[in-house]
């Protein structure tokens, strides 16, 4: 059934309204960030922000924690999702439910639970040192990213014949570690990268965990600048937006490249 002219017009109106809803505030924020100098538009606010040692330190800190979170999340999620699909398929609904809990439980509840269990008076006092608090923050970020990382990996595993690949590798004498390293991980590159970019975007913009654990992350820095400056917060908002969408764009690029390679193989 071909769409009518009326339905096409309605679709375009909906697209334009949706685009305006998202783009107009962004354009207004960008335009405001260029007004730091009275004589006209300039990128002075961006220059001030990018040259600020606080920006460089906080962004570098969050980027490092994002990489550690991605590494820890991959080492946790890939073997778990692989084992669930291969040996324990009946537990898959339960695991999916557990990985969805971070979307239901607020981050502030999560961090207060961490402080209760792992505070200086807890049985495992992570917050007794800066490095211990950093480790605890990485664990918190892994929890927040779990719904996205697990689903990316689980979707990737569903797209390949895990059982046949595993049996073929075992017939050649490979152990479980070699199967994961040489068979499963190479076939999950796109899924892992998709989850990694989502995780990076989540960690860069996260505020609650880093603030309540008193760590110098990018999220608290954004809040601090927003409370004390005028034009720099708008510039920071645009920068954070660009970083997030760059991660999303890279995810789409890798996904399309993977699909194109798969089509060429067939």
* Structural class based on helices, strands and sheet pairing: mainly alpha
Q: What kind of assembly state do the chains in view correspond to?
A: single chain
- C-alpha-based Rg, rounded: 23 Å
Characterize the biggest β-sheet.
none
Distance between the termini: 31 Å
Count of DSSP helices?
12
Element string (H = helix, E = strand): HHHHHHHHHHHH
**Mean residue pLDDT:** 84
Low-confidence segments: none
Shape call: globular
Strand percentage lies at: under 5%
Strand runs, count: 0
Proportion of residues in helical segments = over 70%
Structure write-up:
The chain has 266 residues and is mainly alpha-helical. It is built from twelve helices and no strands.
Descriptors for this entry?
mainly alpha; 12 helices
Topology (SSEs and partners):
Blueprint: H1 5-33, H2 44-51, H3 53-86, H4 92-104, H5 107-118, H6 130-158, H7 162-171, H8 176-187, H9 189-205, H10 208-212, H11 218-228, H12 232-265
Subcellular location: Cell inner membrane; Cell membrane
InterPro entries: MetI-like, MetI-like_sf
Membrane topology: Multi-pass membrane protein
What is the structure about, briefly put?
The chain has 266 residues and is an all-alpha fold. The protein has twelve helices and no strands.
């Amino acid at each position: 059934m071909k769409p009518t002219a009326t339905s096409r017009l309605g679709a375009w109106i909906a697209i334009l309204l949706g685009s305006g809803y998202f783009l107009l505030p962004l354009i207004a924020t960008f335009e405001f960030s260029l007004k730091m100098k009275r004589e006209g538009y300039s990128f002075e606010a961006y220059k001030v922000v990018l040259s600020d040692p606080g920006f460089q330190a906080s962004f570098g800190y969050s980027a490092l924690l994002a990489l550690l979170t991605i590494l820890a999340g991959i080492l946790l999620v890939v073997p778990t999702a692989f084992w669930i699909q291969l040996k324990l398929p009946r537990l898959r609904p339960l695991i999916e439910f557990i990985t969805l809990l971070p979307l239901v439980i607020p981050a502030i509840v999560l961090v207060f639970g961490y402080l209760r269990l792992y505070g200086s008076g807890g049985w495992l006092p992570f917050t007794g040192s800066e490095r211990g608090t950093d480790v605890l923050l990485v664990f918190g970020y892994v929890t927040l990213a779990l719904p996205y990382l697990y689903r990316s990996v689980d979707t990737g595993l569903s797209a390949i014949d895990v059982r046949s690949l595993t049996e073929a590798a075992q017939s050649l004498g490979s152990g479980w570690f070699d199967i994961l390293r040489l068979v499963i991980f190479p076939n999950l590159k796109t899924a892992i990268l998709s989850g990694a970019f989502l995780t990076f975007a989540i960690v860069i913009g996260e505020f609650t965990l880093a603030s309540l654990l008193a760590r110098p992350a990018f999220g608290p820095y954004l809040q601090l600048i927003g409370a004390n400056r005028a034009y720099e917060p708008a510039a920071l908002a645009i920068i954070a937006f660009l970083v997030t969408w760059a991660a999303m764009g890279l995810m789409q690029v890798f996904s399309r490249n993977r699909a194109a390679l798969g089509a060429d193989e067939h």
